[in-house]
Structures are given as C-alpha cells and as structure tokens.
Amino acid sequence: RYSEFLKNTLSKKKIKKKLKIVLDCANGATYNIAPNLFWELGHKVIAINKDPDGMNINKNCGSVDTSKLSKMVIQKKADIGFAFDGDGDRLIVVDEKGLEVDGDKIIGLFCKKFIKPKNKLNKFDVIITIMSNMGLEKYLKNKLKLRIKRTSVGDINVINQMKKSNAMIGGEQSGHIIISKYSNSGDGILAALKICEIICSSKSKASNIFNLYKDYSQEKIDLKYNKMNNKLLKTIDNLKKDRSLNNKNLRSLVRLSGTEPLVRILVEGLNKNKVKEKSIKIKNIIRSCLV
Fold this sequence. Notes:
5-stranded mixed beta sheet, 4-stranded mixed beta sheet, 20% strand, alpha/beta, 12 strands
C-alpha cells in the first residue's frame, strides 16, 4: 500500500526517459521497498548496503557517509545516486559527477518547481532550520521571492512550524525533506521519486538541476563536555551577542546538542579564510570553559 501511495504522488503524464540509479539503503528500512519501487517504475537500479543484519544499519553508509555511493555512481556511470538513512526519513543525493548534494539544495529545487509565493502576511512559504546555508536563504528570498522562517534544529520543529504556516515545503540540511501535500513527515523515498520526476521531465542532468545558488562557506565543530556549568552557558550567551561573529558578512551559531553532551559550533560566511579563523577562535573560547 505504501508503494502504491508513492507511485500516486507522481505525475500521470507519460515520461519515457528512464534513469540509471544507485541506491544506498543504509542497511535499513528502505532495503527492500526502494530498489523494487524504482525498478517497477522502469529505472535501472543498482542497490548497495541492502542487507541489514540488525547491527550494520547506518554503518559507514547511507546519508551519513556517501563515499561508497559516490564511487559506485562514477564506476557504473549512473545518472544519480540516492542515499537514505536507516529509518528512511532522510535523503542525500549524489549527482552524476559523484558530488554530494545536501538537503538545502533539495529544498531549493523543490521550491523552484513546486511553490508559488503566498500573499498572506502571516504565512510562510518555506520552513528551514538555523543550520541551513545562507546561500539557500538568499536564493529563496531574492530569486524565488518566497517568505521563509527558520526553526531550531530537528524535523519535528520544522513540521510543527509548517502546520502553523500552512507551508508546502520544509526541511533540514541533513536531508529531512517534508512535502506537506503528500506527507506529514520526512520521507526519503518520496523525495527521491520527485527528484527523478524533475530530471526526467526536464531532460537535464542532476548536476544541472541542483546548480541553483552558491553555498556560503561553513565550518562545523563538535566539542564534547563531561559536565554542564554556568561559565559555559554564559560564554555561549555572550558569543551570540558578539557583533564580530554575527554581522552581514558572517554568521555564527553556538548551541548545545539536544541529544548528546556536545557543544555544536557553526560559522558561515562568504570568505572561507575568515570563516576558518573565526571557527578556531570560537572553538578555543568554548574549550576554555569545558569541564
């Protein structure tokens, strides 16, 4: 029934073009349904990491590690590669050149193809998170004229804001993509199917359809702590107010992970060297507070 539901999300217009696709099923939930579904639709399918044994889920594969998928796409001269995560709600793409395409670029593509701007002042067209690249934000706002809202990290935060805003598209850089017309949660196979539909109908290569905007440079650092302390919390708060770290040319984000004892650092800007320099500065400041 799920497979039939997914097929029904596709356009009824007959598209003759078929693709050679490599699927990385992360030894998880998509191991059976994804290869069968894409094969039933007439695509040539090469599936890897499709043998779950209860221990190998997400292990050096899937959306958390696309290196094997990238090599396979190049080796097999495939049109595209799709990497799911263990439970199938995330998707990362590898184009025909073997280059990784993250969730931000997928969101940008879907917004370009599926959304028209709303006029209602209290509504948002697209929901992204604080981790999404500034390149995506500028593309959505300046090029597509869409109203966006950023939420805290976590697909549940995106989903809740989408419901409030009646938004059609939302998601995370990590590959959670929500298309509210079809589903109330992230669905990697659904997102992959819609990408195939766009490639086949546009007769363009994957690298071309995702060539939407220039990414800002990003540096991400995770620092582990053993015990929370007031000095650390105060330092994180002070970093938020530091104008040298947050201005029109630079954005920094320092936060506590919601799932692990980690301080997560993100620094983003147009100047790669400046981004690197500021990320090291923040790392050293945070390290001095860790217990």
